[in-house]
Amino acid sequence: MPPTGDHEADLHEASVVTILFTDLVASTEMMERIGDDRAEELRRAHFRLVRDAAGAHGGRTVKSLGDGLMIVFASAVEAVAAAATIQQRVASALAAADTTDGRVRVGLHVGEPIRDEGDYFGRPVVIARRLCDAAGPGQILASDLVRNLAGGRGTAEFRALGRRTLKGLGEPVVVFEVGWQPRAPAPSPEAAAPLDPRSLDLVGRVAEIEELEAEYARAEAGELRAVLLLGDGGLGKTRLAGELARNRGKDAVCLTARAYPLGATSSLGLWVEALEQHLRALDAEEISELCGAAIEDLAALLPSVAAVSPRLGAPAPPLVRQLAALANLLARLSEITPLVIILDDVHLADGSSWEALNYLTRNLADQRVMVVLAARPVELAESVIGGEVLLALEQ
User: Fold this and answer.
1) Residue 262, phi-psi category: left (phi > 0), alpha (psi -120 to 50), beta (remainder)
2) β-strands 17-24, 158-164 pairing
3) Most CB atoms closer than 10 Å: which of 68, 114, 125, 179?
């Protein structure tokens, strides 16, 4: 029986949790081989698949880490089952697409990490991350503690790999591989796969596209613009925003991010996701130049910046400094080329992402920035902070 919503409440109170890390294998090579746009499309689809698989077993996504996710579980048994489900669903998706692009590695550890504002820190987190790093494509590595808690209750098989020295850890860790089996193929392999509507040219919507282009022209001239696309699910808000990005992809930097339900995004998660897709394609010198004096504050938010300027356990800066650092980074990007930021499903956005939108639009008013927000009207009306921010933007 799948876990109920009570797991979410359990995670808020539990001191001991099972931590799962995923990592998309060879993402840089994939991006160079198939191009940024296609690689980003595959990455987003991959993240949706992983989140859905973990959520079915009571997992809560803590944050995105560039090409991977950190997810926590109240139950070690469910965490192990989720890891197997993730690998099965990824394998099925890759088999259907006849490709190996998108394989994933998984690491699992259980412990009592330090918790701070919905995030987790400390040695248990480090061990889980290092186990993920040590795993091969399609492999799940777990610690001895996970095997002791889950081995006698679940159906998964654990194969001992002995002691391994993991990066950054002084003592070797006893490691086990979690076995999993691919799902049986669909009973009708000759049935044609459904046509992906994103592969078709957009027909109609002339008036809407012209209005978006007019707003872009104002942003290109040096006036920050914010556009709200409202419509029920399935009406094409995402496709319309994507058409703008496709049309302007050669003369603007286009950043995209999507909000997720149940608090699946971390603090400022929308902005982190949007910026990470651009920053991870840059080298260290370019990142340092873009961040400028705010590099240490940005390192607390953005994994790509942290890789250039490690903070080594320094406390996170206050929110106002983080927002100022984000504004500085976006301003520098817009000085180089116009900036289009597409935030999808903002009715699900966390409060900090809304607060950032309010701050950034006020402080980047004369920058070449266009923000496109896509939302469902009924759900958006239920967001108190979202309504306040949008009212301020209208005024």
Assistant:
1) left
2) unpaired
3) 68
